[in-house]
Design goal:
The protein is α/β, with parallel strands linked by helices and 241 residues long. Helices cover 43% and strands 21% of the residues. The protein has eight helices and seven strands; from the N terminus they run ααβαβαββαβαααββ. A seven-stranded mixed β-sheet has the order 3-2-1-4-5-7-6, with helices on both faces. It is globular, with a radius of gyration of 17 Å. The two termini are 28 Å apart.
């Protein structure tokens, strides 16, 4: 399967291109996120966090944290600490400003690093979250294995990711929206032509549903399951180390 990258004519690797892409759109990212999802992205994050409510993790690693929206929302779990990691420094800088404004520096810290090479010891975190980020891993299996490594025994991973709705007319409407409206709006507002063309292309190639559960199992996870949200536009996955 051919790897999907943001910039087709660039010779650099996927992670470098993804970093460049998010640096390019960082200033408009939050606005576009809420606009293009009609604000439903906040509900999706809330549903994902609810899956960890009964686990009561004291330490949470938020991978591909971006501007830290998910990390901030995860405070509802009342953990002692949350660490957010991302490869885009400009996205992280926006997240740091949010954290400072909310006076959450004692709860949330942000760090620039690759999801495939996490700078943490084995068995460090009780929970890990990834919201709309696993599609951007250069090596999906390596990224999942790294998350597995840094999780404590019996620790949980929750992944929120786009999928393809199967039912009529949601499937047809979603295809039109993602292939036509999304790239056009993204290009006009973010000024990066590739970013919002890459999004639907990366969703097309992502092994969603049961295929992603298989990827989690390959990385060592157990008790895998997923649930659909918004008629199958998004899936939430959960698994245990």
């Amino acid at each position: 399967m051919k790897e999907v990258k943001p910039y087709k004519h660039s010779s650099s690797g996927k992670s470098e291109q993804v970093e460049m892409m998010f640096d390019n759109i960082a200033k408009r990212y939050d606005f576009l996120n809420h606009l293009l999802s009609l604000g439903i992205d906040k509900m999706w994050r809330k549903k994902a966090i609810q899956l960890l409510t009964y686990d009561k993790p004291k330490s949470v690693l938020d991978i591909a944290t971006g501007t830290a929206d998910f990390a901030i929302a995860a405070l509802k779990l009342k953990p002692e600490r949350i660490v957010g990691v991302d490869i885009s420094e400009k996205m992280l800088n926006i997240g740091r400003k949010k954290i400072l404004k909310l006076e959450l520096e004692n709860k949330i810290s942000l760090l620039k690093c690759s999801s495939e090479k996490l700078p943490f010891n084995d068995n460090t975190f009780e929970a890990a979250t990834v919201a709309f980020g696993v599609r951007n891993f250069e090596n999906l299996n390596q990224g999942l294995k790294e998350i597995y490594r840094v999780l404590m025994p019996e620790g949980n991973i929750v992944v929120l990711e786009f999928a393809h709705p199967k039912t009529f007319p949601v499937k047809q409407l979603y295809t039109f929206y993602s292939k036509t409206i999304l790239p056009l709006a993204g290009r006009l507002i973010s000024k990066d032509k590739a970013a919002y063309t890459y999004l639907p292309a990366s969703i097309d190639k992502f092994p969603s549903g049961h295929k992603f559960l298989e990827e989690l199992s390959k990385a060592g996870f157990k008790d895998t399951f997923y649930k659909k949200l918004s008629f199958g536009i998004v899936n939430i996955y959960k698994a245990k180390k």
